[in-house]
Amino acid sequence: MKFDASQFDNLELDNIGQWPAAAKLVLAIFLGVLVLGLGYMGIISNQLTQLERSYAEEKTLKDSYKTKYHIAANLELFRAQMVEAEDTFANQLRSLPNSHETPGLLDDITFIGTTSGLDFVKLEWQPEISKEIYIELPIDIEVIGPYHAFGQFVSKIAGLPRIVTLHDFIINIAENDNETLNLKLQAKTYRYQEEVVQ
User: Which stretches are transmembrane (predicted)?
Assistant: First the structure.
């Protein structure tokens, strides 16, 4: 069968039934492709997008399930860890001085300094600094004495049952004696800031 392009001349939509078979075939293929394309765009593409969202949601739900299953399977272990953490926190709170113990801390620092062979020039509280869950209580300290006595002093402060940190060390030679040194530092202790009941 030889292709004859002239059979596509003078085609009118009013009499499609009288078109040649080749023209009807081309029209049928065109309409089929058009229907498939519009159907894909109108129905299937939306369904594919929804399917992809469902797959993503399924993955999220599976991950959430795995996490919750892990927690549920280890619930007793987590409870034991929580009790242990609460005990540790309570022990740490006990090592913070309460408001009645803070004056005794100055006595302890004075005792430690004098037994280490140091003379106090200055030992005084500074204004409290309020933080989120605790209050910082700074103490300015200035002592004079030999270098090795400073090491004993710092070591004994670290051994106190309360939490005391040392900051801002400045060591200078004393004014009248080259053998004696002057140490300025700031000690900080901390107090738990209890919630204010209104």
Answer: 21-43
Decide: residue 70, CB within 10 A, 0-12 exposed, 13-18 middle, 19+ buried.
exposed
Residue whose C-alpha is closest to residue 189's, from 87, 96, 76, 61:
96
pTM attached to this predicted model: 0.50
pLDDT of residue 196: 42
DSSP string, the chain: ----GGGGTT--GGGGGGS-HHHHHHHHHHHHHHHHHHHIIIIIHHHHHHHHHHHHHHHHHHHHHHHHHHHHHTHHHHHHHHHHHHHHHHHHHHTS--TTTHHHHHHHHHHHHHHTT-EEEEEEE---EE-SSEEEEEEEEEEEE-HHHHHHHHHHHHTSSS-EEEEEEEEEE-SS-SS-EEEEEEEEEEEE-PPPP-
Taking each helix axis from N to C end, the angle separating 45-73 and 75-94, rounded to the nearest 10 degrees, works out to 60
Q: What are phi and psi of 118, to 5 degrees?
A: -110, 150
* Cβ atoms of residues 116 and 168 within 8 Å: no
Mean pLDDT within 24-52:
82
Rounded-to-integer distance, Cα 123 and Cα 109, Å: 9
Q: What is the pLDDT of residues 69-90, one digit of tens each?
A: 888 888 888 888 888 988 887 7
Q: Is the pLDDT of residue 108 over 50?
A: yes
